[in-house]
């Protein structure tokens, strides 16, 4: 039978898209299911075979849930602001809005050719004015609650292009575009106080169904640590240097201090420092380095002693030297540390290099002169006065109690998480809706003036000094203060790409609402998202940012759930045939268009799911695609062997119940590859038998429909079943009929009964032997002995002879 996938797929897609078959219903009495995939950045390259891996997986989930009676929301949209489009626009002198429109069109054509069951009536783009109006609105609420503030921050600055660069534009310390040196330069930036939410972002992970990797990565990124802050007096002055430590127990072993090169106290004492020139030179050198370079563990330690000041260790009154070094970061803790070389690796290396004393205060390891002893689980305090003899954990507590009592220090929790740098000096982003007035300071635009639209220009290049291109548009910049009516200027920075993607899942719920970001009763019905799938690379930025915004919206009463996503999973990468990452330069990129044209969408989708375990990286294989094509063709050809019978044939009854169970459970557990494999195994059985009943065909194509929706829908109509397949109920199975006939046999060792095991009645001798040897009790008894012989009596016993 001829399998004309082109015709079949076009026919069904035309129908689905013209009727919007998969639209979510506005009936809030139905049980709901909100399936979400990360919306793509519509790049000039078009869809990559990695995108459909995620989209097909949740398309399967969405289609199955509909068949199970859920009101399903499965939407799609575009994360369309951002740098690649802007850079392309600058290079080719085309407006970024046009580039975006063209790219979206292409992406949409591609997605439609694969037959995803998206509700296209809810399509959104972050670049639409009606959309970013609400991105700006959320920003204003953050501003009004004091969660947006402006601060000088170091940015990456290309010395040749004279522009600020995003981190991803800096490759190995040089500008990605011109190869020139990139330095750090201070610029005033809008910041969002995500750190206010650090603890809740950790605590609330508890109740969520996120894959463990994601939880761990988020926790590590937030990086909570418990310790103490304490003061070291500068000898002969009233000033003190405050440090943060997680190891207050080691205070007796603090033999010097280290400040970050940017530490404020240096300026105050500049006149007193005998080696100020050397200090200045070191500061300059440190300013060039990125934080990543500074904290690299393998890097040789460098630093300069501050000649002219000495600190006093508060517990033993010893005078200790003060250094600056780039391994101490300005933005963590207090930007200063007490150095304990005996018990910290970095301090140890520094002490060795500068010939500083290493004093052991925790005994338990080797000689601390040859290696730092960093273990905190075993070891007892020594050389530490009132702490001597205590375990580390107890010593930490006792020392902090002591410091608090004496007023020298106090308990303190720190987070690695930093506030979110929210400014970009770029054109293709949402304008920040604030105005600066000399009299009133920063004033928010009245909400009825939103959206503040991007002004038209054909000059998108950033300014000479790294200002946003908007700064050049003085007509737009100069305005009046909404507060006092006096002259004022607009903020010219724009928002980062992360802004629009931090709340897009809310807009899908009510994409055309113009009185709120979405109507409350709709948010209440659809939230939280039931299943969100996306890339691991978005764990610490997008996923965390959107959880933060959602929590904020919860706090101000916009949404009713404290968390946006109930479940989060992540797919593995699809690699090139050679096992390397797909990239243009490696010439191993597979274009979904080619696959759909040559093999059809059903084959392409099936292969995307069959390629390997969903959460693992897997190489593409054109032979694998061909194998799936043959499978799909065999499914099509079932139509040539179908009988008039409505029920299940006795020979295949068990196989069908087993397969329904397997496919149902595997789809729910993201084991798409084994579900497809089960359907492949079943079709072999069917062909072995030589015929399929109508009843069996109905079940078979229903099970395959979520993965291969077009040909199964066509087969449904051909077979004369009523209505449409996607409206049918998902098949049920009878648990009892999935079980093989079983028997209980005895397992013996040297003729003595040791255990009873239940096995399938039709096992071969070899399989019986294997089952006996895998039995825990037998395994234990046999371990370490030599098996001489195994005797099997089918359906009765296995006797293992050992010596
Ligand atoms: C004394 C000490 C002794 C430390 C010891 C460690 C081991 P986490 O767990 O990551 O929070 N530290 C503090 N501020 C720093 C900064 N701005 N730049 C670089 N290092 C900094 O680590 C806290 C520890 O990192 C602190 O505890 C401090 O060194 C260092 F045997 O203080 B510790
Ligand atoms: Zn004013």
UniProtKB/TrEMBL annotation:
- Boundaries of each Aminoacyl-tRNA synthetase class Ia domain copy? 417-607
Which SUPFAM superfamilies does the UniProt record give? Answer: Anticodon-binding domain of a subclass of class I aminoacyl-tRNA synthetases, Nucleotidylyl transferase, ValRS/IleRS/LeuRS editing domain
- Cellular component terms per the entry's GO annotation: cytosol
> In terms of domain of life, where is this protein from?
Bacteria
Question: GO molecular function, one example?
Answer: aminoacyl-tRNA deacylase activity
Q: Which GO terms describe its biological process?
A: leucyl-tRNA aminoacylation
Q: Where is the Leucyl-tRNA synthetase editing domain?
A: 219-403
- PANTHER family from the xrefs? LEUCINE--TRNA LIGASE, MITOCHONDRIAL, LEUCYL-TRNA SYNTHETASE
What name does the UniProt record give this protein? Leucine--tRNA ligase
Q: Which reaction does it catalyse?
A: tRNA(Leu) + L-leucine + ATP = L-leucyl-tRNA(Leu) + AMP + diphosphate
Q: Which residues bind ATP?
A: 584
Give one Pfam hit by family name. Answer: tRNA-synt_1
What keywords is this UniProt entry annotated with? Aminoacyl-tRNA synthetase, ATP-binding, Cytoplasm, Ligase, Nucleotide-binding, Protein biosynthesis
Per the UniProt record, the source organism is: Congzhengia minquanensis
Q: Where is the Methionyl/Leucyl tRNA synthetase domain?
A: 39-184
All copies of domain Methionyl/Valyl/Leucyl/Isoleucyl-tRNA synthetase anticodon-binding, residue ranges: 654-764
Compartments where located: Cytoplasm
Q: Which family does it belong to?
A: Belongs to the class-I aminoacyl-tRNA synthetase family.
Q: Where is this motif: 'KMSKS' region?
A: 581-585
Q: What is its EC number?
A: 6.1.1.4
